[in-house]
Design a protein that fits this description.
Elements (H helix, E strand, L loop, with lengths): L1 H48 L1 E4 L1 E2 L7 E9 L5 E8 L5 E9 L6 E3 L8 E2 L7 E7 L7 E10 L7 E7 L2
Antiparallel strand pairs: 1-3, 2-10, 3-4, 4-8, 5-6, 5-7, 5-9, 9-10
């Protein structure tokens, strides 16, 4: 009798662990699904409340595609910019630069330093860059350029996409 009750007890514990694990997995899957949905909603909201500018890819052997530069106002007069690109090279980094308005028209890193204006794409060639500005970047820049930095070096930098902010 003791042996049968031990088997029943062990079986009940195993079933409870399996059910508990399944419920935990399903709730985690729900959290991930909700997170993905909220990210999609946030991306859509940013595109609706801001200005989405499609950057034109430069000609080359493997130009990026689906390159977007989004400017969205924040509270307190600040602005966030988000650059999203697909089809990027994975063996280097990218630099976001702006062409300043005015007679000089200098090309400078968008965040004033190259380090703060640089990003590395993921293993699938997708890249996201963002920065918060104190003023609308359209007041300072007339266009945006995306540069590819082979092996993360400025030497040999190539423009891969650009767009006008007007």
């Amino acid at each position: 009798m003791g042996n049968k009750s031990s088997i029943v007890l062990v079986s009940a514990v195993l079933i409870a662990l399996i059910i508990g694990g399944a419920v935990g997995y399903m709730s985690r899957a729900g959290e991930v699904s909700a997170l993905l949905s909220s990210n999609t909603l946030m991306h859509n909201e940013m595109q609706m409340s801001g200005s989405a500018i499609s950057l034109m890819a430069a000609s080359g052997s493997m130009p990026p595609h689906d390159v977007w530069f989004i400017i969205t106002p924040l509270q307190g007069g600040k602005y966030v910019v988000v650059l999203h690109a697909a089809g990027l090279e994975t063996n280097g980094s990218y630099l976001v630069e702006g062409v300043t308005k005015g007679a000089q028209m200098n090309t400078i890193p968008i965040a004033m330093t190259a380090t703060d204006s640089e990003f590395v794409p993921d293993n699938h060639g997708n890249g996201v860059y963002w920065h918060i500005f104190d003023i609308d970047p359209r007041a300072q820049f007339e266009s945006i350029e995306l540069l590819y930095l082979p092996n993360m070096q400025m030497q040999g930098a190539m423009q891969v996409a650009s767009g006008t902010l007007s």
